[in-house]
Each structure stands twice: as structure tokens, then as C-alpha cells.
Amino acid sequence: MTMTKKELCVFFLMAVLSGFMIGIGGTASLLAQFLFGNWGKLVGAVLFSLGIYAIVTYGMKLFTGMVADIPKLGLGGLWQLPLCFFGNILGVALVAALVWNSPLAASVVPMGKAIVWGKLAMKGWGIKCFCSAILCGWLITLSVWASKYAPKKNLSASIEVIFPVVVFAFCGFDHSVANMLYFYFAGLLTWQVLGYVLVSIAGNIIGGVLLPLVIVLKERAKAERAALDAAQAENQ
Q1: Over the stretch 146-165, which tens digit does the pLDDT of each residue have?
Q2: Structural domain harbouring 41
Q3: How many domains does the chain have?
Q4: Which of 139, 146, 138 is nearest to 165 (CA)?
């Protein structure tokens, strides 16, 4: 796939804005957990869904959302994924920098640090991150594809975009882009952090591409059935 320079610029800016929205949603989620205690995780999950809802509504480019398009992109279009991820983490970094210098820093930053230390301190963190990221990737695909498959393109589509995000955020499944906000707040850059990011990316890809691959198989089976029925009709 090729793009003009202007299209490429718009693509990257949409990726940055997508990361910016994930950062805002993540910040709101952390603040809810700080303010509301045990109920904060549920409130935070609902608030975090704002980020994905805005991304789907305005057609921004999110790495975990683009994963669902891998079967359609083909080998020639895979270069878009790392470019999108770079734009996403840049957008998250912008939010992190703004929050660091805002009144929210005193409450939000320590919450982000606590999440990071909890993730990295887990025994067998690699396999746990990988399995968690697969579940996250699956739910994100359900969310970003809702507008295509919802029976009604209004309220039902909105609910189908939001609900899977609330579930993954409430469960704490690993989202490779959202995790970057916590790592920025913790100020960590170690080999373990890099490994955690790479494992979460791999898990998000596997989980996110499962449904699209099955749909491709379904469409091929449907086409084969149509061709077979046509051939049988000709022979009659």
C-alpha cells in the first residue's frame, strides 16, 4: 500500500491523537482509582472507554485497532503498524508530560507507578503479560469492529464499542499502548520494561487478529459454497 506525503502525515497525526486519547483515558482511570477506592476500578474502566470511543468515532489510528486489519493489509501494508505504534506512544508521552506538570500529578503519578511495580514484580510476568495481552487484543477488536457489525448503526454500535473496553480495563488486561502511560509515570527504562512492552505487543497482535482471520475463512467458505451452488445449478 502506498500513501502520498499528505496522507502519510495525516496517518501519523491520527496515530498521535489516538495515543493522546488513550493517555487521557488512562489518566482519568488512575484518578478514579485514587478517589473511589474499591469502586474506582469500575469507574475508571468506564472513564477509560472514552479514549477508544473517540478513536472509533473520529477514525483515529490505534495500533491495537489496526491489528484487526492485518489480513487485509497484507505484507505490503504491515509497515503501517510500527509507524502507528510510534505515533501512539508519542501521543501518550505528550499526555504524561502534561499530567506531570498539572495538579493531577500528586494523585495520578503514584497510582501509575504502583501499577508498574505490581506488573513487573509478578512471578512469571512474561507468560502472565502475554496471556493478558491476548485477551485485551480480542476485546479491542470486538470494540473497533462494532461499527461494522452492529445490527443498528447508532445506540447499539456505541454500546458495542464501549462495553468490551470497559471489560478489558476493569480486568486489567495488558494494552501495549495504555501501559506506556504507567511506564512514563514510573520513569523506568530497563530491559525488563522493554521485554514487557514487546510481550504485550505480541499478545495484542495474536488476540486482535483471531476474529479477523476467522471472518476471512468464513467469507471464503461462503464464496466456495456460492460457486458450488452455481455449478450445481448449471448442471441441472
Answers
A1: 777 665 556 566 778 899 99
A2: 5-235
A3: 1
A4: 139
75: domain CATH number? Answer: 1.20.1080.10
Give dist(CA 18, CA 12) in Å, integer. Answer: 10
Neighbours of 160 (CB within 10 A): 20
In one-letter notation, the amino acid at residue 68 is A
Cβ atoms of 88 and 196 within 8 Å: the answer is no
What are the φ/ψ torsions at residue 173 (nearest 5 degrees)? -65, 150
Per the confidence metrics, is the pTM higher than 0.85?
Answer: yes
Q: What pLDDT is attached to residue 149?
A: 67
Per-residue pLDDT tens over the stretch 100-111: 999 999 999 999
Given a cut of 70, the residues of the chain with pLDDT beneath it are 1, 149-157, 236
Is the CA virtual torsion 45, 50, 53, 55 positive or negative? negative
Residue 39 phi/psi, 5-degree rounding, is -80, -15
Per the CB < 8 A criterion, the answer to whether 98 and 24 are in contact is: no
